[in-house]
UniProtKB/TrEMBL annotation:
TM region positions: none
Lineage: Bacteria, Pseudomonadati, Bacteroidota, Cytophagia, Cytophagales
Biased composition (Basic and acidic residues): 719-732
An example Gene Ontology molecular-function term: metallopeptidase activity
Organism: Ohtaekwangia koreensis
All copies of domain Peptidase M1 membrane alanine aminopeptidase, residue ranges: 398-554
Region (Disordered): 706-732
SUPFAM superfamilies linked to this entry: Metalloproteases ('zincins'), catalytic domain (SSF55486)
InterPro entries per the UniProt record, alphabetical: Peptidase_M1_dom, Peptidase_M4/M1_CTD_sf
Protein name, entry field: Peptidase M1 membrane alanine aminopeptidase domain-containing protein
Top-rank taxon, per record: Bacteria
Length: 732
């Protein structure tokens, strides 16, 4: 009995090693928190954290100091004895990984900036100074700091349904962004006028996410893997030099206090400027402030509700424009803040790009729900936060190439788009980077196709160089970003999921059905924390398409699409009937055709292979009493061209078959064969096609929509290959 069970188990394992195996054993079991249909369950829960923050930029020392009060709500079914917070600024301590090895190893003529990245030659004392952590009675709380994470041990555990309020006072030196590879925040210095643009992000100790799937998400911040955060309401008070302009997450509460009378009047008028951007702060006014450098201070007050983070930018160099955007259910103020170095391109394109992103993303998901959407100009970065993004792209001497401008606009669209993924549909970026970068790049592509059709946008062919790369160092999409090579990061987490979703929409599911399902996913998980399984299950549940083979191949493996057209047989039915008198002759002819069909052809020069069809023998019908008319079947095939095409899966990734037929009269036809054709043999399949006209050529994936990595084996007649002697003659 034991032997039989072991044998059965071995057979079962062997049976389920196929590429069409269901994903059930790879995905978490559906439960009352997350259902099998990919939506929040009846007992779904998530935590909440509200913040009141007072912060000040000390410009002479480039220091940010602050204090915050956090009220944490335990909506989980668990009792919490301690809390975990993120101390992201600690990544800037000298001992932490800065990805400088991307520029290594050391070599002759190495630029000094690259050596700075590798060795931190110019030292910088980064990281938090935590002055105090206290409860609401100002009694000190015990803390433990582990690199970028801080644990607070509670005097009394927080039970389900309870909340806890505590305070933190802190400060840190703001980083010079030019000295840190992949720095998402800090200041940018302008030596010509001796001013800074401050980009303040990851700036206050923030609650880690605690959920039903993982508990505390306290995986250390290593700069690439971004954030898992809880939603909450924020009150933010930001003190800066009096001549600074502040752009922040949230609604500005005291505009009349911090703006001049003229600026305030312009801002109020701009709220109705639906046709084009309207200036609140002009270039001339910004230039004047650059020279004065006020030492007085002002406090800007913002309120942000139901957001998972807050960021802000501050500078006296900012020019500020605003345009109102009317969505079906909301009116949003699209804003841009930029120094004079961004002119003229930023005044022409930035707010327009914000508007385009809001309109197209809202079309495919849900109407943007927040009051403002902001684009801030900086250098060498694109980074997103709720309601605000920091975007690179800057002209040189007022000029920008078309490609550079397209890159700048694409960056703005992409970073504004992140308001949807992950700022509202709030996935865990530390764990599954593709869930925000991939989905967002997909919608960025839709925006560019509809509003910037002249731009190059991500298409399946773009991923081919990466997909045909070295698999020994390649990672599946279902991996954490910190484990990916920096030079493959964009291809794996941005482009590959975008290509996969494009393939789903354009080739596998269909545009209308895909768009409905994608929109349903976005709306189900607004202000919630979806996981990969929720997305996979949701897209199948809303489309009635079994996609387990697709998720497995594109997201769980490093396989690629490489299908070759191995052989094509061309047949034509012989016209003589298979009677008793000529039956022997026909069988012999059939034998000859069978032998000829064993030969692998390279073209159609040998003409069609003749074949005969015998009358159906009685035993073929089994117990059925009805009979087909054999002659009618023959008549329907008379004169037809029958092609038997053999396809080989060289890359391992199962795929639909998109086939283009070119006929001898010059006309073309395209057929789409679903990927299920590979179900019983994932390595090689043959399919018979009946055509009225004679075929001149056959091509697999003619437009590159399947991302096939080798188009040299995609056609029949087969492409001629040069001999080594021919190659030698060409090269010599």
């Amino acid at each position: 009995m034991v032997l039989l069970c072991a044998f059965a188990n071995a057979q079962e394992q062997k049976k389920w090693k196929g590429k069409f195996e269901q994903l059930d054993q790879f995905l978490p079991t559906p439960n009352e928190y997350r259902t099998g249909s990919g939506e929040p369950g009846t007992k779904y829960w998530q935590q909440r954290a509200d913040y009141t923050i007072d912060a000040e930029i000390e410009e002479p020392t480039n220091t940010l100091k602050g204090k915050e009060t956090i009220t944490y709500y335990n909506n989980s079914p668990e009792t919490l004895k301690y809390l975990w917070l993120q101390l992201d600024q600690n990544i800037n301590k000298k001992g932490n990984e800065d990805f400088g090895n991307y520029y290594g190893p050391v070599r002759d003529s190495l630029p000094t900036l690259h050596m700075q990245y590798i060795t931190r030659t110019i030292e910088f004392e980064g990281g938090y100074s935590i002055q105090s952590v206290t409860d609401k009675t100002n009694k000190s709380l015990p803390i433990t700091i582990n690199n970028t994470m801080m644990r607070i041990d509670l005097p009394v555990a927080i039970k389900t349904g309870e909340s806890y309020t505590f305070n933190i006072a802190w400060s840190y030196p703001i980083t010079d962004r030019s000295l840190f590879l992949l720095s998402r925040e800090g200041y940018e210095h302008f030596p010509e006028d001796k001013n800074n643009v401050y980009l303040i992000a990851h700036w206050f100790p923030r609650m880690c996410q605690f959920d039903d799937y993982e508990g505390w998400q306290n995986k250390q911040f290593q700069r690439l893997g971004e954030f898992a955060l809880e939603f909450g309401n924020y009150k933010i008070n930001i003190t800066v030099p009096a001549d600074h302009i502040v752009a922040s997450t949230g609604a500005l509460l005291n505009a009349k206090e911090v703006l001049s009378a003229k600026e305030f009047e312009r801002l109020e008028k701009a709220k109705a400027s639906f046709d084009k951007p309207s200036l609140v702060v002009t270039e001339e006014e910004a230039r004047a402030k650059e020279k004065i450098k006020s030492t007085a201070k002002k406090t800007w007050r913002f309120q942000a509700d139901n957001v998972r983070d807050v960021a802000f930018a501050s500078s006296r160099k900012f020019i500020w424009d605003v345009q109102a955007v009317k969505l079906p259910t909301n009116t949003v103020l699209a804003m841009s803040f930029y120094p004079k170095e961004g002119l003229p391109v930023w005044s022409e394109e930035s707010t327009k790009a914000v508007k385009n992103a809001l309109e197209i993303y809202s079309k495919y998901t849900f109407d943007y729900p927040y009051p403002v959407a902001i684009s801030v100009n900086t250098s060498n970065i694109g980074m997103e936060f709720p309601m605000i993004s920091f975007n690179g792209g800057r002209p040189r001497n007022g000029q920008m190439s078309d490609n550079a401008k397209a890159g700048m606009i694409g960056t703005i669209v992409h970073e504004v788009g992140h308001n949807y993924f992950p700022m509202i549909v709030s996935s865990d970026e530390r764990q599954w980077m593709w869930m925000d970068e991939g989905l967002n790049t997909f919608l960025q592509t839709r925006t560019e196709m509809e509003r910037y059709p002249a731009f190059h946008h991500t298409i399946p062919k773009d991923i081919v160089p990466y997909m045909k790369g070295d698999k020994s160092v390649m990672r599946p999409v279902m991996n954490t970003s910190d484990n990916e090579r920096l030079n493959a990061f964009g291809a794996n987490y941005y482009e590959k999921p975008t290509v996969a979703l494009t393939l789903l929409r354009e080739t596998i599911i269909g545009k209308d059905l895909f768009d409905k399902a994608f929109k349903e996913y976005a709306n189900r998980w607004m202000y919630k924390h979806p996981r990969p399984a929720d997305f996979f299950r949701m897209m199948e549940e809303a489309t009635a398409v079994d996609l387990d083979w697709f998720w497995r191949g594109w997201f769980f493996t490093t396989d690629n699409v490489d299908v070759s057209v191995e052989d094509v047989k061309w047949f034509k039915l012989k016209t003589q009937q298979a009677t008793i008198e000529n039956k022997t002759k026909n069988v012999k002819a059939g034998d000859l055709s069978a032998k000829a069909s064993d030969k692998v052809n390279t073209d159609f020069s040998q003409g069609p292979l003749p074949f005969t069809m015998l009358n159906t023998p009685e035993q073929a019908y089994g117990e059925f009493r009805s009979r087909i008319d054999d002659n009618v079947v023959r008549q329907k095939l008379e004169g037809k061209n029958i092609y038997q095409v053999k396809f080989k899966n060289n890359g391992g990734l199962v795929t639909p078959l998109v086939i283009e037929w070119t006929y001898k009269d010059g006309t073309k036809e395209t057929e789409n064969i679903p990927a299920e054709i590979w179900r019983t043999n994932e390595n090689e399949v043959s399919k018979v096609f009946i055509k009225e006209k004679e075929v001149a050529s056959i091509a697999f994936d003619p437009k590159g929509e399947l991302a096939d990595v080798d188009d040299n084996n995609n056609t029949f007649p087969k492409k001629a290959t040069e001999s080594k002697f021919d190659q030698f003659k060409k090269n010599n």
